[in-house]
């Protein structure tokens, strides 16, 4: 068996075909990375989590091709270098729900990211096309507003300044005629029970 392997290698060398990686270059994988998602959405706006979950879909022309490692690069420009975070090569077959593990993200900022993977043979794929996500308010101190709504308790109506309809001046207690008495005062009614 050893003679067969040597014979095959000798035949390859004589014919000018070098084994993969023999010339010091990294073999390029047939696996392609696409369908990038952030928090299970395509290029979302308003992500309000500090460590968004990233994911992608693999495709290949061959059957049985899998992922053995990945690398994620996050930047502030679509074609830029990983100026925010580079995961480096991570040995894992996971391709979804990978939590961002870089420095703290800034509120109301657009980030771009891309990924590449290594297959089981150790060949690396090309970088994916970039995807993006935009953060929302990530800290409570980012909110500068007040709640819109009714006051906790409505002001009680006051009868100060009310006049007798039939007796605007004088002393109604001493000279009021017998009969029904009515007060006159304008005020607003607040409904607290809305059904």
Q: Can you walk me through this structure?
A:
- It is a single chain.
- This protein has 195 residues and is mainly β.
- It contains 2 helices and 10 strands; from the N terminus they run H-E-E-E-E-E-E-E-E-E-H-E.
- Helix content is 9%, strand content 25%.
- The strands form 3 sheets. The protein has a 5-stranded mixed β-sheet, with no helix packed on it.
- It is rod-shaped, with a radius of gyration of 37 Å.
- The model is unreliable at 5-24 (pLDDT under 50).
Please work out how many helical segments DSSP would assign.
Answer: 2
Q: Could you state the oligomeric state of the chains shown?
A: single chain
SSE string = HEEEEEEEEEHE
**Global mean pLDDT:** 80
The percent range for helix content is under 10%
Just give the CATH class of the domain at 27-138. Mainly Beta
Radius of gyration (CA) equals 37 Å
**End-to-end span in angstroms?**
88 Å
How much strand content do the residues show?
25-35%
Just name the CATH architecture of the domain at 27-138.
Answer: Sandwich
Structural class: mainly beta
- Shape descriptor: rod-shaped
* Major sheet size, sense and barrel closure: 5 strands, mixed
* Sequence stretches where pLDDT stays below 50 over 5 or more residues: 5-24
Widest beta sheet: strand line-up: 2-8-7-4-5
Fold-level CATH name of the domain at 27-138: Immunoglobulin-like
């Amino acid at each position: 068996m050893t003679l067969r392997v040597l014979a095959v290698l000798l035949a390859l060398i004589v014919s000018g075909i070098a084994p993969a990686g023999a010339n010091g270059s990294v073999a390029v994988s047939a696996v392609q990375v696409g369908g990038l998602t952030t928090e299970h959405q395509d290029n979302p706006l308003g992500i309000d989590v500090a460590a968004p979950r990233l994911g992608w879909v693999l495709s290949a022309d061959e059957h049985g091709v899998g992922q053995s490692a990945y690398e994620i690069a996050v930047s502030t420009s679509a074609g830029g270098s990983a100026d925010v975070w580079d995961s480096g090569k991570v040995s894992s077959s996971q391709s979804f729900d990978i939590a961002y593990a870089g420095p703290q993200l800034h509120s109301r900022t657009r980030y771009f990211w891309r990924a590449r993977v290594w297959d089981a043979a150790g060949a690396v794929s090309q970088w994916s096309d970039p995807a993006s996500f935009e953060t929302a308010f990530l800290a409570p101190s980012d909110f500068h507003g007040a709640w819109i709504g009714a006051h906790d308790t409505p002001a009680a109506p006051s009868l100060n300044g009310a006049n007798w309809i039939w007796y605007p001046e004088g002393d109604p207690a001493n000279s009021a005629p017998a009969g029904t008495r009515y007060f006159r005062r304008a005020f607003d009614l607040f409904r607290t029970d809305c059904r």
